[in-house]
């Protein structure tokens, strides 16, 4: 006979309380998602690689001869188009992670609290700003230790560039946008046990990260350790440093490496 | 003040002008002449028995009942007589009266009834062009010996597509070809060249200064997306006269070997479906214009499959088929649907292809020429011309030889 640990219990009251607070506005819901449209930029890889398809929409009918009372569209896109989720299987380092595709990720991972790290000023001053371990340690000295099992959200204000050339910020020598280096990623994954990294830019890695000594460290280290990525987020400036809870549930694509999704944050009116 | 030609203005309350096309019924022999005229050739039937050239086209030699064969002919002629038509019951011609006609003695032999340029009088030497009328059928037009097209002659304008003062959309202006086309149209006097800018969006590099000039308007345009096409068209102020579809997706690759299905699909999405999206959205706009035209840049790979560029050739073949259907649809509206065929281009997409290759600027000049000369089908460069000649002669042999 085996003994199993007793399951943690909750009451219906806790959920009911949350719903009541949502209804009353005590918990605010912030939409962290960009509009999924054909003109929303997608990541551009060096030309020797296959490219990411943008979102596209073709109308099947709109109250017309093809469907007099209904309106619907066929849509197509890459799994990594628009505001989207990266599963561990997205990266070669995560290829052997159990349940590493979007259809297999345990659903409880879709809801986690977040820590928001503000790098807006640094990114404004330097579009290639790199988040390092030293930067994070300094941030902790100011803001307290990052708790385990949290989303790390980098607020760079990059979402405010959407609709301009400076969002992808493609130049002759590639894209320029902020992101972490390998030291920062190891710190967040190994020592702070983050759920994943969420960014406003088109990728979790910096624009020039393919040229780092350890290339594309965010993807490589996050996914190699079974962590997730969220990209093309917006409205991070409406979140408190601590206290927001992220709801990010990707589409259940069979064997999918990621998925566009609607990301929302539940924010208490008094985070402290 | 703008140095560009001003856009045309119209009375907003005026009833929409109904447009007609020249009557279209023709004999099968006449359609055979039209098919050759579309290639810019001046051909007549010649008897294989007695050698007599004949016009108009017929089924047998009027001299000896011998078998007739099409042959390219000298274009010279002498004007014999002239007349001016002032009354007609035909709706199209009523709109364009008076209309000059004349009889000419062709150097090739026959006497022919032709459309007469306004400067020609009896006794003059002339060059004869077979041009396509607004209904898409061949007609002989007598021009002054220089052969120059006088755009101020309203009768002649019916057979060509004027560019001066017109609004033109170029579907992919970011490519080397597209850039060259924008430049050529701008220099040819288009009032506005709308430059479709394909994603990804990025700052313009060197050589793209033309896109920032007055008379050029950049609009984001992804012809692989219906919504993007509609949005781009909504940003064009005033009527649209001409569409130049330069969008293509050139990638090497086979079918089972060295195949890349993502690239193959993309080639279809841009070349074939892209043409459909663009045609569907712009067709009705062009149909309302007095000289609407749609020019499609097609690879000569469309004529027969290519083992080295299988997906690209298949997509271009599909594009050609769609273009032919679109041409038929537009015939009643008098909108000219033209094809400019090219072989490999001197651009970044053909780095592994050996010369001869066609410079983008040459393609652009050919497109302008196709419009102003009224050529329904043009082959630019040696590769396309050779491919077309061989395909016309023996299509099955050409398909075989191409992939040896």
UniProtKB/TrEMBL annotation, chain B:
ChsH2 rubredoxin-like zinc ribbon domain residues are: 36-66
- The segments labelled Disordered in the record are 1-26
Organism from which the protein derives = Aurantiacibacter xanthus
A Pfam family of the record is adh_short
Q: Could you identify this protein by its name?
A: SDR family NAD(P)-dependent oxidoreductase
Q: Which PANTHER family match?
A: BLR3430 PROTEIN
Residue stretches of biased makeup (Basic residues): 15-26
Known InterPro entries for this protein? Answer: ChsH2_Znr, NA-bd_OB-fold, NAD(P)-bd_dom_sf, SDR_fam, Thioester_dehydratase-like
Q: Where is the composition biased (Basic and acidic residues)?
A: 1-14
Superkingdom of source: Bacteria
């Amino acid at each position: 006979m085996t003994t199993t640990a007793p399951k943690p219990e909750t009451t219906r009251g806790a959920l009911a309380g949350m719903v009541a607070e949502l209804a009353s506005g005590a918990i605010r819901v912030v939409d962290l998602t960009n509009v999924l449209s054909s003109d929303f930029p997608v990541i551009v890889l060096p030309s020797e690689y296959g490219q990411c398809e943008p979102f596209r929409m073709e109308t099947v009918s709109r109250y017309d001869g093809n469907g007099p009372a209904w309106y619907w569209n066929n849509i197509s896109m890459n799994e990594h188009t628009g505001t989207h989720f990266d599963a561990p299987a997205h990266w070669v380092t995560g290829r052997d992670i159990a349940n590493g595709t979007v259809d297999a990720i345990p659903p409880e991972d879709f809801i986690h609290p977040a820590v928001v790290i503000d790098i807006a000023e640094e990114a404004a001053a330097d579009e290639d700003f790199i988040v390092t371990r030293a930067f994070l340690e300094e941030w902790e000295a100011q803001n307290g230790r990052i708790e385990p099992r949290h989303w790390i959200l980098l607020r760079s204000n990059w979402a405010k560039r959407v609709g301009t050339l400076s969002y992808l910020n493609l130049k002759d020598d590639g894209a320029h946008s902020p992101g972490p280096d390998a030291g920062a990623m190891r710190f967040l994954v190994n020592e702070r046990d983050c759920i994943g990294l969420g960014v406003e830019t088109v990728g979790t890695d910096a624009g020039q990260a393919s040229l780092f000594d350890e290339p594309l460290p965010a993807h490589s280290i996050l996914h190699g350790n079974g962590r997730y990525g969220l990209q093309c987020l917006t409205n991070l400036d409406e979140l408190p440093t601590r206290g927001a809870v992220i709801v990010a549930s990707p589409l259940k694509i069979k064997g999918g490496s990621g998925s566009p999704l609607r990301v929302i944050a539940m924010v208490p009116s008094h985070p402290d | 003040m703008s140095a560009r030609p001003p856009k045309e203005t119209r009375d907003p309350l005026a009833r929409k002008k109904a447009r007609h096309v020249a009557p279209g019924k023709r004999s099968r022999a006449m359609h055979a002449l039209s098919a050759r005229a579309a290639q810019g050739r001046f051909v007549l039937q010649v008897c294989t028995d007695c050698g007599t050239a004949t016009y108009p086209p017929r089924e047998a030699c009027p001299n000896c009942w011998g078998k007739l064969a099409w042959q390219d002919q000298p274009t010279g002629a002498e004007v014999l007589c002239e007349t001016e038509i002032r009354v007609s019951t035909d709706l199209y011609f009523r709109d364009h009266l008076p209309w000059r006609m004349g009889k000419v003695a062709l150097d090739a032999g026959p006497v022919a009834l032709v459309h007469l340029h306004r400067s020609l009088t009896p006794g003059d030497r002339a060059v004869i062009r077979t041009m396509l009328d607004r209904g898409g059928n061949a007609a002989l037009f007598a021009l002054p010996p220089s052969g120059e097209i006088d755009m101020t002659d309203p009768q002649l304008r019916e057979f060509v597509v004027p560019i001066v003062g017109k609004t033109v959309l170029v579907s992919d202006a970011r490519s080397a070809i597209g850039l060259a086309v924008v430049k050529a149209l701008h220099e040819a006097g288009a009032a506005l060249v709308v430059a479709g800018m394909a994603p990804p969006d990025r700052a313009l590099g060197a050589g793209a200064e033309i896109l920032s000039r007055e008379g050029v308007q950049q609009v984001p345009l992804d012809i692989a997306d219906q919504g993007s096409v509609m949005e781009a068209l909504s940003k064009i102020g005033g009527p649209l006269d001409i569409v130049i579809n330069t969008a293509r997706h050139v990638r090497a690759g086979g079918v089972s070997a060295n195949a890349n299905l993502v690239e193959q699909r993309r080639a279809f999405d841009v070349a074939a479906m892209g043409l459909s999206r663009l045609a569907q959205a712009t067709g009705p706009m062009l149909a309302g214009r007095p000289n609407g035209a749609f020019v499609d840049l097609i690879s000569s790979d469309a004529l027969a499959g290519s083992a080295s560029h299988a997906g690209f050739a298949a997509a271009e073949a599909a594009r050609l088929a769609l273009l032919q259907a679109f041409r038929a649809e537009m015939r009643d509206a008098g909108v000219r649907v033209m094809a400019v065929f090219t072989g490999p281009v001197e651009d970044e997409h053909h780095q592994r292809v050996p010369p001869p290759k066609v410079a983008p600027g040459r393609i652009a000049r050919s497109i302008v020429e196709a419009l102003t000369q009224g050529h329904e089908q043009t082959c630019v460069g040696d590769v396309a011309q050779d491919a077309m000649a061989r395909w016309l002669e023996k299509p099955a042999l050409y398909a075989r030889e191409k992939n040896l």
